Amino acid sequence: MTVAIIYIVSLVFVAFYAAVRFRYELQMLQQNSYRLSRYWRWFLGDRHNPDRLIDLLILAISPFYTILPFGARWAPYFIGAIGVLALYRSVRQLLRKYKKPLVFTSRAVRIFFVGLLLLAATLHFTPWHLVSATILSMAFATFSPLWISLALILLMPVERLINAWYIRDARRILSAMPRLIIIGITGSYGKTSTKHYLYRILSERFSVVMTPGSFNTTLGVVRTIREHLKPYTEVFIVEMGAKQPGDVAEICDLVHPSIGILTSVGEQHLESFKTIENVQKTKFELIDSLPADGVAILNDDFPYIASRPVTNVATVLRYSSDDLKNPPFTTRLVGAHNIGNIYAAWLAGKALGMTDDEMLYAISDLKPIEHRLEVKHVGGLTIIDDAFNSNPSGAAAALDVLAGFTGGRRIVVTPGMIELGTRQYELNRTFGNQIASSCDYAIIVGEYNRDAILQGLSEASFPSDKIFAAPTFNSASAHVHQITKPGDTILYENDLPDTFK
Fold first, then answer.
1. Distance between CA atoms of 382 and 365, rounded to whole angstroms?
2. Which domains, and CATH codes, for the chain?
3. What are phi and psi of 251, to 5 degrees?
């Protein structure tokens, strides 16, 4: 009886382990946009994770069940030890804090349960008794990335059918609103801030809906249309993100914008785009989709915008920092790049017939976008929160803002920049150079960009005793509390997702 209880408890622990493993791998798949190539690239790069080593240990010792003398007294305790190892691994996983937790969308639920069914189907063909059930469940659960991937592949036809229905429904809603003005905004960076500023300005006269949060994919736009557009909506502002050529064109084919704002073309997402020319081509998909009577608003501060002719629309409005040395408005927002973002919104408001007074009132009321150069004052410290993401242009702008604070020490906390392809190391090394000329103390978080940033700091002769390498964000925060005093300014530049270390 005691032996049977050990086996049953171990089997429960193993089932718990399988569920936790599946949940984690699904979370990472979701953070990689359900793209198998990106997920497996992350998975193979995660091989040094201590939890992965525990998985390998479990997989390595599991086959020993085939040679165990099951009648031996110590056999149940061997099985029990594996069960306890599984429980330890599961609890360790559950206690970890994540910046972006799993969202159990309908798609995520489908993948989760189909993956578990695949695991169960595999076990169905194994010899069934408590020992084999326990050990084989453990062994097969370590292959959760495989089951999750197979579940994703098997469900692809189902997802296509579901998505096609949602897209048809969104088209139906749009076709019933022929007077709706649709404004598309895209760019390597600056699009989210510009979207919020434009929304606030246009709301002075129009009933406006914008894509919320990071709903900047085709399905995110579809969801916004189905859940937020009302018959009385007059203007729909659509943020258009992209990870590969064709992404912006796909959104434009759905919504057909009449005004397009291109905020930037820079070195962002080079891991998937490969070249800056591909970035340019993809971002200009918005401008190329505009009708002949449409309006194109372009930020000529970026050479890959300024050098690209636009001939398909009658109205092309270009702007740059040279034009904005004396902008027609004032703002409380920090960062020179925000002047350009506001001016793009200003030009769109002008195109829709808004008066200067309407727009000036709205601009005077603009507030920082959360985690995008958001300045806060906490306990005598000034916090510059630019943690949402980072890119070469935005990071340089954030450091310029930090450099302007001279009342105390200037401290930067950053893990560097990601998704820069073959230029990852070079651009983060340059970032290190810029940190050296803008701040007094640098805290480098994690390992992903540490060597590149440290090299950049060293090249600029930044004092080594003013650098702290923090393995995690929590340890970086603890160090900040130890070293800061009233009057100091801390810039938090970028906050890497859970898929990066």
1. 22
2. 2-155 (no CATH), 179-364 (3.40.1190.10), 374-493 (3.90.190.20)
3. -70, -45
